[in-house]
Amino acid sequence: MWSLLLWEVLLPIAVTGAQIQGQVGGSVLLAAEHLPGFQVREAIWRSLWPLEELLATFSGDSLQTLYRSRFLGRAHLHPNLSLELRPLESGDSGNFSVLLVDTGGWAWTQTLQLKVYDTVPRPTVQVFIAAARDAQPPKTCQVFLSCWAPNISDVTYSWQREGTIGFGLEPHGLFANGQVLRVSLGPGDKGVAYSCIVSNPVSWDLVTVTPWESCHREAAPGKTSYKDVLLMVVVPVSFLLVLVGLLSAWHCGPCSGKKKKDVCANDVAPETENAVV
């Protein structure tokens, strides 16, 4: 083992780099590249960041992976000296290196960067409508579609309209890094569906909604729009709370008139009695 470390310090090293992507719960193969004519005599795999740990070694005909590290039991060294990690965990992202030493004493080091992504969960979409206040379905309906994928980061949001190819929606209708889409619908869009696609480099998922159905519900007889709810519920409740606050302030505030004299007399009497005692 010490000889491997000495080879890395004393001999010329050729460094290469590669980026590898993996998915939580899956596996990834960190390939050890062999130069033409390079007869490997010894090899060592290490984790460089976020922790520097020894993962696997090869010397002669011996393969060893039973080193105490966060990959213990999950690191598998193949005969071609590539290192397989499985199953992957969310904290496995980092930098790795493999040092190869040939029979002539030359050393060759490769560095690899591993990025592990979570599996994208099924997103949810909320439909917000700015509908007309009349009882009949409006001629146009302004819709805001808000998409969200829970408990995940490093994802991209995109939208697709049913019947279109690609993601050709107008950029000016997108907000919040693509999470919110604004569209204007008419009676001819009753059956048109919109899909929110959430993706990362290793997985994706989508959910589809038909927003015109919400437009129709908002404008149907007996239904109330969002603005109606504000006027009928929120405003009266707010007024009632303000009124209660004013009454409480009047009741608990400083004494005034006859009430002040009575209350103050009650407060002063004990003090006078205590003073005499």
Describe the fold and architecture.
This protein has 277 residues and is of the alpha+beta class. Helix content is 23%, strand content 36%. The chain has helices at residues 2-10, 212-219, 226-252, 257-276; strands at residues 15-23, 28-30, 40-49, 53-59, 62-64, 75-77, 83-85, 94-102, 107-117, 124-130, 141-148, 156-161, 174-175, 180-185, 194-200, 203-209. Strands 1-9-8-3-4-5 form a six-stranded mixed beta sheet. A four-stranded antiparallel beta sheet has the order 10-11-14-13, with helices on one face. 19% of the residues are buried. The model is unreliable at 1-12, 219-242 and 250-277 (pLDDT under 50).
Quickly describe the structure.
This protein has 277 residues and is α+β, with helices and mostly antiparallel strands. Helices cover 23% and strands 36% of the residues.
How are the SSEs placed, and which strands pair?
Layout: H1 2-10, E1 15-23, E2 28-30, E3 40-49, E4 53-59, E5 62-64, E6 75-77, E7 83-85, E8 94-102, E9 107-117, E10 124-130, E11 141-148, E12 156-161, E13 174-175, E14 180-185, E15 194-200, E16 203-209, H2 212-219, H3 226-252, H4 257-276
Please write the string of helix (H) and strand (E) elements: HEEEEEEEEEEEEEEEEHHH
Q: How far do the termini sit from each other? A: 92 Å
Overall residue-averaged pLDDT value: 76
Largest sheet: 6 strands, mixed
Strand neighbour order, sheet with most strands: 1-9-8-3-4-5
Structural class: alpha+beta
Computed CA radius of gyration, to the nearest angstrom: 35 Å
Helicity range: 10-25%
- Uncertain residue segments: 1-12, 219-242, 250-277
Number of strands: 16
Provide a count of the helices.
Answer: 4
| Percentage beta strand | 35-45%
**Shape annotation:** elongated
